[in-house]
Design goal:
The complex is a heterodimer of chains A (141) and B (222). Helices cover 33% and strands 16% of the residues of chain A. With 141 residues, chain A is an alpha/beta fold. A four-stranded parallel sheet of chain A has the order 2-1-3-4, sandwiched between helices. In chain A, α3 (50-58) crosses α4 (79-96). The chains are: A alpha/beta (141), B alpha/beta (222).
């Protein structure tokens, strides 16, 4: 079963450089899935902060993706490398409370990727659901 | 700056387990600089603890607050209006901060979420090093501002041990030999003559053996 059919709440932090038209391109998907999907555009993935990810998980996200530019192709040189370090820190932190590290995943897009954020998000939603809903979700989410 | 590191969450969970209302209190000074107890770290820990409680089906209220300084009464006083609402204060201050809060609120339960470690310097982003032992008898003036007590693994006062290799300490090759630094800096400053002075053993009575130290300044008192 894919992640969309499994009803997982997906949060996507992403570098705006990936899709300059992201503000328009994500609207249809947001309308379709409502609170099941949340996008957080960043000026650079280097702006990723562990606290943002923790808040997303706490707010009911079952899976948090961080989409970055290809390694070596960051517009700000090493933002995506910094993002990777912060993701690793966050994975360690959630592991301490018994959550799966896989609930947070960084994806550095392959070099030459030319896509829109909605297409990328649909590809992620179509991935097989390997995680069950987060135990943090609670009844309200 | 006082440096510290967060305790493992299992240890923190064990400490707060009996309580229902927890206030996580950070400190915006030293421990914020070393990224262990500032506002962001309060958020990270509180968020983790709330998620853990929720996942475990526990009904626990965990709130966040950060004081500019947790070791000074004027800042601690900000807790006065809220402290009664909580069963326990989980402090992300250094050991001095934890004790200062406890002293101001004698009936409140204050628990430490950090392990206070050393007086140090932010060497670079994400790297903090110990460079002062607070010995109470500073001799940096003789040693080109490099402390041999703290930065020499053997704490030698009167010259190097001779064991360094390629300017690195034989005890820990990741650390530069303090005496190499001292000699190089004195040479650069044209003050190699300072090496002729023979230093007696450190007077540790200025640091320890008499209980907690204090500094009293009449001119600073109200």
């Amino acid at each position: 079963m894919d992640q969309k059919s499994a009803g997982l709440n997906i949060t996507i932090f992403f570098c705006q450089q990936i899709d300059p038209e992201q503000d328009v391109n994500r609207r249809a998907l947001e309308k379709e899935l409502g609170r099941r999907i949340r996008f957080f555009p960043l000026p650079c993935s280097g702006r990723t902060d562990s606290l943002h990810i923790m808040r997303a998980l706490e707010s009911g996200a079952d899976k948090v993706y961080i989409l970055t530019c290809p390694e070596g192709a960051c517009h700000y040189r090493e933002g995506n490398i910094r993002a990777r370090k912060r993701i690793a820190y966050t994975q360690d932190l959630i592991a301490e409370i018994g959550l799966e590290r896989e609930r947070v995943e960084l994806i550095a897009l392959p070099a030459g990727t030319s896509s829109t954020i909605d297409k990328l998000a649909r590809e992620l939603l179509a991935r097989e659901a390997t995680l069950s809903p987060s135990p943090v979700r609670g009844k309200l989410n | 700056m006082i440096t510290a590191e967060r305790k493992p969450i299992t240890e923190i969970k064990e400490m707060i387990a009996p309580y229902k209302k927890v206030l996580v209190v950070g400190c915006g000074s030293c421990v914020a600089e070393c990224a262990s107890g500032g506002e962001k770290e309060v958020g990270l820990l509180a968020s983790a603890l709330r998620m853990d409680a929720k996942a475990s089906g526990k009904d626990v209220e965990i709130k966040e607050m950060t004081l500019d300084r947790q070791c000074v009464y004027e800042f601690i006083d900000q807790l006065t209006d809220v402290i009664d609402q909580y069963d326990v204060i989980l402090s992300l201050g250094c050991g001095a901060g934890v004790q200062a809060v406890a002293e101001v609120f004698p009936k409140a339960l204050i628990l430490p979420a950090l392990n206070t470690t050393f007086i140090g310097q932010t060497k670079e982003a994400g790297l903090w090093i110990e460079n002062c032992r607070g010995c109470g008898d500073c001799k940096l003036g003789y040693f080109a501002a490099v402390c041999p007590i703290t930065r020499c693994a053997k704490g030698l006062f009167n010259g190097p041990c001779g064991g360094s290799k390629a300017d690195r300490c034989e005890v820990d090759p990741d650390v530069p030999c303090a005496w190499q630094l001292i000699v190089t800096r004195l040479e650069d400053m044209g003050r190699l003559d300072l090496l002729c002075k023979v230093h007696p053993p450190a007077d540790w009575s200025k640091q320890q053996g008499k209980g907690p130290r204090k500094i009293y300044r009449e001119d600073q008192r109200s």
